[in-house]
Design goal:
By secondary structure, the chain is α/β, with parallel strands linked by helices. The chain has helices at about 20-35, 85-95, and strands at about 15, 40-45, 45-50, 55-60, 80-85, 100-105, 120-125, 130-135. The chain contains 2 helices and 8 strands. Strands 1-4-3-2 form a 4-stranded mixed sheet, with helices on one face. Strands 5-8-7-6 form a 4-stranded mixed sheet. The longest helix has 14 residues, at about 20-35.
Length: about 140
């Protein structure tokens, strides 16, 4: 079986360790589903979603130490996703609080990233930030 080669450097996957898997599945599952991801894998300690060969994993690992992600410390600050046209981004931002996501920089929405950058910023219950960018 011949596999189609993928471009070198293309992101393969991102794995996020979470303190509460059930909560992460609800929050990330909603957001990723809205962005077009499909559930990929499911096991007792984790779940993943995929789109175009890249996947995102949430896992509740026994090796994890602190119980909350700190986006302002060294390490991952945020993940940024293309969110579709402006009206779809606005709808996601309106729905997000009912799905466990807190808007960030709300007083500057949708231009917190600058006057030419139409985007929304969210933080979930575990402290992970996402940037949703309209095109």
């Amino acid at each position: 079986m011949t596999q189609t080669p993928v471009p070198r450097g293309l992101l393969h996957h991102v794995e996020l360790w979470v303190p509460d898997l059930a909560r992460a599945v609800v929050e990330w599952g909603w957001l990723l589903g809205e962005l077009g991801y499909e559930q990929f894998q499911d096991w007792p300690a984790g779940r993943s979603w995929t789109q175009h060969g890249t996947y995102l994993v949430v896992e509740q690992s026994k090796a994890m130490t602190p119980d909350r992600h700190e986006r302002l410390r060294p390490g991952l600050n945020h993940l940024a996703f293309h969110a579709g046209p402006r009206d779809q981004l606005d709808e996601l931002m309106a729905q997000a609080p009912q799905q466990g996501w807190k808007p960030l920089f709300g007083e500057k929405y949708p231009f917190a990233g600058g006057p030419q950058h139409y985007a929304g910023y969210l933080e979930n219950s575990d402290g992970f930030e996402v940037e949703l960018v309209a095109f």
